[in-house]
Amino acid sequence: MSVPRPLGNQTLPSPSQKSFKPRFSVPIPCRSTASWILERQNPQERFVRETIPHHFIDILNPDETYSAGRFAREAQDLLARKQADGTPIVIVGGTGLYIKALEKGLVALPAIPQSIQERLWEEYVNEGLETLYQRLLNVDPFTAQAIHPHDRTRILRALGIFETTGKPLSLFQKGHGFKGTPVNLFKVGLTYPREILYKRIEKRVDRMIEAGWLDEVEMLLGMGYDETLKPMQAIGYKQLVQVLRGRSTLDEAIDEIKKETRHLAKRQITWFKKEAPHLWITPEGDDPRKWAEDLITRMPQGDPSWT
């Protein structure tokens, strides 16, 4: 990602466990494949990281947890401090729930006991996600219908809330409804024709493999990080673990990574269409600086109310 000084002096990613997106975005907040590989494959990534302060990258180990709620709290604190000294901030990333949590707040949910989290994860590993999704349909059909059947994180969380409280997640959310507006954002969406987007996805996966992604995953496993950890189950990590365990070939893994990333891109497009950014931009060429300059010319000037 490249951001010229007139647009923003500091960058705040909206992270999640997803390791990469179909366009220039920001990785999970730990020092592993995503940030390390991006810097190796593209010197411009390293240059940008060195010249423009980035926040919430490389702050966790792979066995530490992170959530949209924690991100929203920490990001709001950071934005308040930067706003006080007049520092422009650009929030970057494709994780819609994190951006929504920052912009509109999240419902306060009870903590799910570790024992319930571990048991649900065991059931996921042993029985599969489809079984858990069917269970969610039975106990909380409203939440289940709003969640993609492959969205493991949200399915496990919804079941965890139900088993902890005896109440469906939808009941908690109904009373909140994302009605708060803690942060006022001007939202910009990048979009490509589907064919071009898919080609960019495939090219980026190939570059990451060439830059040593498999070696990085092998290093993480060698450091003792278990393959069942959530970050190790993210797109790319999961498939490369299968290669290293002898359960798949590298070519098969690459094909699967590309396919799953295309599916992720489709889900992101659906999400952000519903969220309705203030401005959609279709980047032309391969120079991010030109994209940003185009954005600057099309953004409102001054400090209007954008919500």
Explain the layout of strands and helices.
Layout: E1 10-13, H1 33-41, H2 43-51, H3 68-84, E2 89-92, H4 96-104, H5 114-127, H6 129-139, H7 141-146, H8 152-165, H9 169-174, E3 188-190, H10 194-210, H11 213-222, H12 237-244, H13 250-275, E4 279-281, H14 288-298
Parallel strand pairs: 1-2, 3-4
Helix pairs in contact: 1-2, 3-4, 5-6, 5-8, 6-8, 10-13, 11-12, 12-13
CATH topology of the largest domain: Rossmann fold
Structural class: mainly alpha
| Major β-sheet annotation | 2 strands, parallel
How many domains is the backbone divided into? 2
What Rg, in angstroms, do the CA atoms define? 20 Å
Secondary structure tally: strands: 4
CATH class of the largest domain: Alpha Beta
Helix content: 40-55%
Broad shape: globular
In words, what does this structure look like?
There is one protein chain. The protein has 307 residues and is mainly alpha-helical. It folds into 2 domains: 10-106 and 180-298, Rossmann fold; 114-174, Histone, subunit A, CATH 1.10.20.140. 54% of the residues lie in helices and 5% in strands. It contains 14 helices and 4 strands.
